Amino acid sequence: MMDFTHSLLEFNSALHLLLNTLLVTHLSGHHTICVIRGPQDDIRLEFPQSTLNLLMDARSSLEAFNQQLVRAIDTGCDGFVLTESTLLPFLDTFRAAHEAASYRAGNKRIIAVTPLEAADRHLLISHDAMEVTPNILLIVPNATIRSVDLYRTDVLPAEPRGITAGLIRLDGFIFEESWSPSNMSDNYFLGMLSDFRGRRWQTPFLAFPLSLWLMVSISFCAGTTAVFITERQRRRMHHRTSAHQRYRLSDAIFFMVSLYVEQSAPLHTDLVAGTILLAFLLFGGFMVGNSYAGALSCVMTVPRYEKSIDTRADFLATGMKFVGSTPVWLYTFTLSKQPDVVKLRNSYEVYDVPSLTKFVHTRNDLGYIYERMQYGSFSLESFIDMYGSRQLQPLKDEVFYEIVITACSKTWSMKSVYDDLVLRVQQAGIFRYWEEGSTFRVMGEEIQRNLAFARVRELDHDPVKLKMSHFLGVFFILFVGLILATLTFIAELLVYRMQQKRLIQVVQRVD
Where does the Ionotropic glutamate receptor C-terminal domain lie (predicted)? Predict the structure, then answer.
């Protein structure tokens, strides 16, 4: 009995160490952490952030707990730590409490310690609050085998519309003497990742555009030719006998390759033209090699993308087509005389829904019309599915605005009452509740979230691609060196031939 008690105490200590480690690594960026526990729950936290403790007593009603939770949210609670007895009651009051509270946190995270029995698992994944609480990390302890499993809730699209919840096992730990929190992963919460897939064999060739590769090839050929001619003539001028191996074109090619990849190469300084040529070739090879290395590192680490399409003018400048499933979208700006609106209207094409569904998956030269609702939700047609929400992004500027009005007789006696009703409904947030509930229920939260965050990671400035202007100085110096070396070589060759003629004349006179 004593051994079992001692083992249980050790397991609880390790479990609290794991919980504190998860709090520090995953909730340290939150304003306030709310710890909700039952009377029999033992949670000991050592957390540097502000912490608020709520005790959920079995004698207190769910309404009283809801009021406590509203006050906790208004104090800044955006991270929650729950126990087995408080997990489901917390989810029951999650929507009502957050809708009643004034504070709106953007990234709520929940950590729950629960055995997660089969019945609890079913109640959890089928709960209505799962579609608005995607970031739940479940710590599932098992004191019998001294292990802990980590699960994360996941929201998946349902067919043909809507969402469904599930659980993903992330990791497992067995508490032994050698266990350490350093064995844990950096992040167990759901994140938004971008998957950039490309043809990896193209990577070495993407550092330079085609025009730069052409210039590098021309300079390489010119340098190889100059080195080959200079070295052949140098050996002839210095009376190299046939005992020495004849200088070949392959020797000149490998010499230039060594310079371009910044490797050692044999240098001869007994010819002034050769010295000048090698000096400029060394400089040019050094600049090209370093520029290629820098550009290649950018290609391998920075995603490649084209200029962002932000406005109607940007969209029209690309030549993309404007498509939809019905001509009704055009009625709003039929009478417009703005040039860009007229051009946009004339480029509009109507297709059936199956064709548009296929276009979303196969074409990247089309723009699809959608409606942004009053409180920011996206009203999409059925052909924009989960894949489309990940590949498309909305313009920063709206194409046009519409105002919905209600017409009535000027003598209608209920007009003032109706105006008051509309104002009260707007102030109460009923329209917002209807909008969010209907869009999440029909289209799913993930589609809305993908479109809403499509531009979150954009930079404040546009990327700059390497152009010919970046290398004009390098190639100017390189070709100046080639021309100077060529002229010097011609002058030296003329001087050499004149000396040879004089030597021959002197020998003939002596004979």
Answer: 211-482
